[in-house]
């Protein structure tokens, strides 16, 4: 017998940023016979790398929080859709399936009846998964463009702070556009599922 899966809308597992970490150069002792504390060999370049790495770590944390904002917005706007699938449609499924268990019917007929009952809820789950996959793919592409611009800016300038600032602005815009899109995605799903607003 078919078992309905519990639908849960979540973005975190799909949206991931893989920003390239700045490699911090290690101070090396030039002459092993006369070791001198590494701190004496930390040059301006290495200090700048440490600063850049710290800035990038802070940026990654801010980006993580921004993605959480998208996830939170999606959960809020799509809560009614999730509730409709998990309760209204699945309740109808179980009521329908219950009626299939008639002793006058053959086992194959019962199975076919139960499978027929599952169609609405499965179609709804597949619809939501498809729309959310498209939404996530759209956001991922937008964020990938931001990262490409950031990597190009790092190659063209020595000012990592400016590059990170541009990256944050780009991500801010992508996140805002995605959050603004969520109500439209929710509305489309509600219309397809014949839900009352």
Count of alpha/pi helices: 4
Mean pLDDT: 77
Major sheet description: none
Low-confidence stretches: 9-42
Radius of gyration: 26 Å
Portion in beta strands: under 5%
The helix/strand series, from N terminus to C terminus, equals: HHHH
Helix content: over 70%
Gap between N and C termini: 34 Å
Shape: elongated
Number of strands: 0
Helix-and-strand structural type: mainly alpha
Please characterize this protein's 3D structure.
- With 197 residues, this protein is mainly alpha-helical.
- It has a domain at 38-78 and 118-192.
- 71% of the residues lie in helices and 0% in strands.
- It has 4 helices and no strands.
- It has helices at 44-77, 79-100, 107-156, 160-192.
- It is elongated and about 80 Å long.
- 16% of the residues are buried.
Gist of the model:
The protein is mainly α and 197 residues long. It has helices at residues 44-77, 79-100, 107-156, 160-192. Helix 1 packs parallel to helix 4 and helix 2 packs antiparallel against helix 3.
Key phrases:
197 residues; mainly alpha; elongated
Element layout with pairings:
Elements: H1 44-77, H2 79-100, H3 107-156, H4 160-192
Helix pairs in contact: 1-4, 2-3, 3-4
């Amino acid at each position: 017998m078919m078992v309905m899966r519990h639908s849960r809308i979540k973005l975190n597992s799909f949206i991931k940023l893989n920003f390239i970490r700045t490699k911090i150069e290690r101070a090396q002792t030039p002459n092993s016979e006369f070791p001198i504390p590494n701190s004496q060999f930390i040059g301006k370049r290495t200090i700048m790398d440490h600063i850049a790495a710290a800035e990038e770590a802070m940026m990654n944390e801010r980006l993580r929080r921004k993605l959480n904002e998208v996830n939170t917005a999606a959960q809020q706007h799509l809560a009614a859709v999730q509730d409709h699938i998990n309760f209204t449609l699945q309740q109808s499924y179980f009521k329908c399936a219950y009626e299939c268990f008639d002793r006058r019917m053959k086992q194959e007929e019962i199975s076919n009846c139960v499978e027929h009952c599952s169609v609405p809820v499965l179609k709804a789950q597949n619809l939501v998964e498809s729309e959310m996959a498209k939404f996530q793919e759209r956001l991922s592409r937008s964020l990938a463009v931001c990262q490409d611009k950031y990597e190009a800016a790092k190659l063209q300038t020595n000012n990592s702070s400016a590059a990170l600032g541009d990256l944050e602005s780009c991500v801010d815009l992508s996140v805002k556009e995605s959050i603004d899109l969520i109500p439209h995605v929710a509305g489309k799903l509600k219309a397809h599922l014949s839900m009352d607003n």
